Amino acid sequence: MVWPFNHFRKPRQAPRGTIEAIYGMIVTQAREPIFYRDLGVPDTVNGRFDLLLLHLWLLLRRLRTVEGATELSQALFDRFCEDMDDNLREMGIGDQTVPKRMRAFGEAFYGRVQAYDEAMEGGSEALAAAICRNILNGTGIDQARRLAAYAGTTEADLVRAGEAALLLGSFRFPPALTEDITP
Q1: Do residues 124 and 148 touch, judged by C-beta distance below 8 A?
Q2: Judging by beta carbons within 10 Å of its beta carbon (0-12, 13-18, 19+), is residue 30 exposed, middle or buried?
Q3: Of 87, 91, 148, 170, which sits 20 to 30 A from 49 (CA to CA)?
Q4: Count of C-beta atoms within a 10 Å radius of residue 52
Q5: What is the pTM (predicted TM-score) of this model?
């Protein structure tokens, strides 16, 4: 029997374990030493934040094309916000300052999403320029080109992963740097 009020229920969310697994993959990939050692990403709080945003953006961009992924996308963004809040508190930021910092994180996230989306439409050189500006502090265009090539490879790998793999968290990010990732 179909319950007549089922349409008033909240939509089913992805299992918490799936969200944690996917977010863990994003964080793990963003912490790969090669990004900092060989690709010029500053090994600072801001550099790590920017690389985390890049990977989150790549996955959320792909999930936009997957039917039924809205809840997962929102849950991943919520998990990102929880993580940022936790990190601020661990760094000793006071309760009254946390909301201001969280607002700044949100503005940074949405600003970069817009910049990277527009750049992706403009091609690899436009994406390299956006990465150079946002992640590499305006220096190191050659390294930015390599990061842009990596982003392109990652996007292609996420497409090949298939929708079910994305929704279940059974995909992998490509290696952080390979010989075939050249501008």
Answers
A1: yes
A2: buried
A3: 170
A4: 20
A5: 0.85
Considering just the CA atoms, what is the radius of gyration of the chain in Å?
A: 17
Determine the average pLDDT of the residues in 3-29: 73
> Residue 143 in contact with residue 136, Cβ under 8 Å?
yes
- The residue written with tokens 């963004």 in the block is 77
- Spell 120-148 as b/e; 16+ CB within 10 A means b: beeeeebbbbbbbebbbeeebbebbbbbb
Rounded to whole angstroms, the Cα distance separating 17 from 108 reads 27
Burial 90-119 (b: 16+ CB within 10 A, else e): eeeeeeeeeeeeeeebeebbeebeebbeeb
CA distance linking residue 175 with residue 168, whole number of Å: 20
Q: Give the model's pLDDT for residue 13.
A: 58
pLDDT at 102: 80
Q: Please list, in sequence order, all residues whose beta carbon lies within 8 angstroms of the beta carbon of residue 17, skipping any fewer than 6 positions away.
A: none
pLDDT at 11 (0 to 100): 47
